Amino acid sequence: MEQTNSVNADPDPTSESMHSFLLILEVLGLCNNFAYVVMLSAAHDILKKQENQNSTATVTSTLDLQAGNSSNTSIYDCNPTSTAAVLLADILPTLFIKMFAPFVIHKFPYGFRILFCGLTAAASFLVVSFSSALWMSFLGVILASISSGLGELSFLALTVYYSRDVVGGWGSGTGAAGVTGALMYSGLTQLGLTPRLTLLIMLIIPAAMVLNYFFLLVHPPSLPQWRTKDPRCPGDEGKTCTVPSSSSGLCVISPCPCAHEQGLLKFVLPLGLVYFAEYFINQGLMELLYFPDFFLSHAEQYRWYQTLYQVGVFISRSSLCCFKVRKLWVFAALQFLNTVLLMFAVWFRFMPSAWIVFVIILYEGLLGGGAYVNTFYFISKETEERHREFAMALASVGDTMGICLSTALSFPVHNYFCTF
């Protein structure tokens, strides 16, 4: 495998060890995004259960599924609250972390970060499973957001300690999280398990992340695992950015790369637009794409929309080994066409069957995953070595910002259509 300059030399540059590292990083990517994906897949159930609790004044499992929404007369069978409310709780903490953490995260070693991510992910499943009020459910969703946001930022920064090819492994793993999380939630509930029991089973995922990171991943000697400063760089008090040189083993002190943020816009803007369009579909329109004569209930249709979207994301995030696309604006343009098509489908209700929507949702996921993995690959390739770790962490704010803006638009759209 071709060797590339990175912040630190690979701990073992052999082909076999690199393959092993890619596999471990895929598992870490899967574990990191798993809770986030499950909360979005469960969004319809979370809101449905809380509505049922309010109408019957009983306290039961937070996520016990009820088929159909008998309390509303909308032709779209709407929940009183848009599923975008769950997305908002699932993304705002992530946005805050990604906007501010890159400037201070170096003060916290990787070991502490990953352990914290595992604990908050486990807490999110427990809180949502046993909640008896809507605010408790949203607290659990927020915990999942904190875990995935901090984890994504940390693992993307971690990839610069290895060959840039490992970005493909991370992308594939996060794509697999979408498929695995959505499929497990949809499949287990479809088999008859309650959503509460399904979420409790998923506690194995945060445990797997912590175990893989601390016991299977090979860490470079220079990685700040439990210490805030590189032992080879005396006098580093956080006022400058200390970058160990991969070639000499010495420390190179350079100004912090804040001035290079503008250079990231060519990557961040297309990524943000792609995610704005696709999450407006996912949380603003997907719940409204309801086919009452289909063999699946409304809740089941929503779950499988989410699952097929994640299948598309997984396929495209695993595509770097086959081809790369440098023109990132193509993804944004095509995704906006998808949004316009599905917006008209909701408005005029001309789609004859949910099967056609399934295909469009799968294609939507392909575009979103392709935009993500190509963005970070080309950032790692085109950014100066000394700024690469900072750039990988900061650029992740693009997709999160797009999701937040789509959420703001999803609320009025949901409320408008649900008046019919």
UniProtKB/TrEMBL annotation:
Keyword Cytoplasm: no
SUPFAM superfamilies associated with the record: MFS general substrate transporter (SSF103473)
InterPro entries per record: Battenin_disease_Cln3, Battenin_disease_Cln3_subgr, MFS_trans_sf
CDD domains given in the database record: MFS
Segments passing through the bilayer: 20-43, 84-105, 111-131, 138-161, 167-185, 197-218, 328-348, 354-378, 390-411
Keywords: Lysosome, Membrane, Transmembrane, Transmembrane helix, Transport
Family of the protein in this entry: Belongs to the battenin family.
Protein name (record): Battenin
